Amino acid sequence: MRKQTLALLTCAALTLPVSSFAEEVEHYEGKESATLKEAVANFSEYNKKLEEVLSGELDAEAMDEIHQLTYTLENALGKINEEFDGLAVTLEEIHLASESADTEGVASNGKAYLETSRTVIE
Predict the structure, then answer these.
(1) CA atoms of 103 and 5, how far apart (whole Å)
(2) What does the radius of gyration of the chain's CA atoms come to, in whole angstroms?
(3) pLDDT tens for residues 64-111?
(4) How far is residue 86 from each of residues 10, 60, 83, measured CA to CA in Å?
């Protein structure tokens, strides 16, 4: 029984990816994106940085830099997605209000919609 257990453990260890035995990966906080405006600025800035690193040799140093950049990009994209989910709801409110000729609903939701959407594009 002991030999079978040892054999099973050996087989299991051999099927693990090599990366399982590598040093533990360091994690970073990334730059925060508290507002949509901040998220768009961070997204733009860090995409440029990523593009620059990707244009060179992807050696160990570049991979570490890319790893660090992705934390800020993930934070920014998360905030953008969160805000745009809300923007879709606001747009639907405008749509529904326009169907029922609700001028007050169109005006108030329209203002909120444009304020948020113009953070990303004019």
Answers:
(1) 74
(2) 24
(3) 999 999 999 999 999 999 999 999 999 999 999 999 999 999 999 999
(4) 52, 39, 5
d(CA 93, CA 69): 36
- d(C-alpha 75, C-alpha 73), whole Å: 5
Q: Which residue's structure tokens are 């260890």?
A: 13
Q: Which residues contact 99 (CB under 8 A, 6 or more apart)?
A: none
Name which of 74, 88, 79 is nearest 117 in CA terms.
88
Exposure string over 91-121, b if 16+ CB within 10 A, otherwise e: bebbeebeeeeeeeebeebbebbeebbebee
